[in-house]
Design a protein that fits this description.
Blueprint (H helix, E strand, L loop, with lengths): L9 E5 L1 H9 L3 E7 L4 E11 L2 E6 L4 H6 L7 E11 L4 E13 L2 H6 L13 E16 L2
Antiparallel strand pairs: 1-7, 2-3, 2-5, 3-4, 4-7, 5-6, 6-7
Pfam families: Pyridox_ox_2
InterPro entries: Pyridox_Oxase-rel, Split_barrel_FMN-bd
Protein name: Pyridoxamine 5'-phosphate oxidase family protein
Length: 141
């Protein structure tokens, strides 16, 4: 028997303010970038600073090497966070696209700390400025 269409969750677009509110409530997201071999996605711990995402990574890692490849300047990148309840078929997803650049020591001192979950050195700090912020939510009517 087919489910009644009124029982199905609805998909709605989120405005920029709601997207930033949802981003502000998290600590783990994914950075998407081109590492020279193609699109790559890496999870990172982050904090929100205005409408920019601040994250840390290791100096030797693929993410840091790729984002430092254009200095000075910004590397095009994206950042995505989502939360889903698979049982209820509800959730949301936010995508931030913009330019990423390394933070100077002075800039690092002015932003909220980011505490990476994994051990080891995470001395490369980056800011991903939001040129575009979009989001969608799946919810029950």
């Amino acid at each position: 028997m087919a489910a009644n269409s009124s029982d199905k969750p609805v998909l709605e677009e989120l405005d920029r303010a709601e997207c930033l509110r949802l981003l502000a409530g998290g600590t783990v997201g994914r950075v998407a970038f081109d590492d020279g071999e193609g699109p790559t996605v890496v999870p990172v711990n982050y904090t929100l600073d205005g409408d920019a995402v601040i994250f840390r990574t290791s100096l030797e890692g693929r993410l840091s090497r790729s984002l430092l490849s254009v200095v000075p300047g910004e590397v095009r990148a994206a950042f995505q966070v989502d939360r889903f309840d698979e049982e209820d078929h509800e959730g949301w997803s936010v995508l931030l696209r913009g330019g990423a650049h390394p933070l100077s020591d002075g800039e690092i001192a002015q932003v909220e700390p980011v505490e990476p979950w994994p051990g080891g050195e995470r001395d490369a700090w980056f800011r991903l400025a939001a040129h575009e912020v979009t989001g969608r939510r799946v919810r029950r009517p």
